[in-house]
Amino acid sequence: MPSANPADDTAAGVEIAALLERGRDLSTPVLRAAVNRLAAPMDTVASYHFGWIDAAGQPSVGEGGKAVRPALALLSAEVAGARPEVGIPGAVAVELVHNFSLLHDDLMDGDEQRRHRDTVWKVHGPAQAILVGDALFALANEVLLELGTAEAGRATRRLTVASRKLIDGQAQDISYEHRERVTVEECLEMEGNKTGALLACAASIGAVLGGADDRTADTLEAYGYHLGLAFQAIDDLLGIWGDPVTTGKQTWSDLRQRKKSLPVVAALAEGGPASRELGELLAADAKSNDFDSFSEEEFATRAALIEEAGGREWTSQEARRQHAVAIEALAGVDMPTHVRAQLAALADFVVVRKR
Length: 355
What we know:
Keywords: Magnesium, Metal-binding, Transferase. Belongs to the FPP/GGPP synthase family. Helices cover 70% and strands 1% of the residues. By secondary structure, the chain is mainly α. It has a two-stranded antiparallel ribbon.
């Protein structure tokens, strides 16, 4: 998908893989050092989660995350005129909070696979998943505050607010699983909390560490927030129609968890025959005692109804709309041309990814 800003043609020439790799390469040594502070066996469990070792404790080259958040934090520092390295503590702190949430989410959702490997709770047990998640959350604040600067205090405040919103979003997500109907507005609010808040923080935290004023940081947060909504809309599509070989999750994974994701909510709001049939099926599912034994065909039927009612297309359009709003927000900040192009290219990447 081309950049939503026609004037920003340079985004097409940005090498996304190199941008993501820079974020990963600069942040990983500091991230590893932070994890090594944890008491045993939490250090080992965390290392397994990050893909650095396998379940037997041997070094591994397991697939890591997409590294969008570290890339954003380093670019954010450059927006403020600082070197990208200034954003490393922010990149690490955001990654620690993100992975705290993944550890807990996998346990709460009962997910047994992440990045084509068994999840931490499946390998090491629920108690370790909870403890290591808590430890990563604490480490995130420690990594920032030990800088001892006024900028670090401002960055920590933004990270703390984003973390609270992330937890709010997870609580909303769980509560919506037990409701027959959720409005599109409620779903967007939940996803803005669960995904948008931390991406907003990633997009501004490097700039804060680099001495940017609050207006600049707030504008970068707006870019990151809407980028997060676009990111989550794509995630919602992949959660139903994604290729398990690519995503590392089960087929129809979000339907199996009865998630009220954007495609589902938009389809239920449409009101036509397919929408009504879908609503009846989902209402019956909520009362079913044998939901876990549903066949692939039964989940495929629900996915087909969501698509027929327009939920898939609406969500695709919403991802593009949020992408456009994110790009538009960048116009409010002066920055080097190459940094603007890289931020635009990252936004493009988010809405064309397949995992």
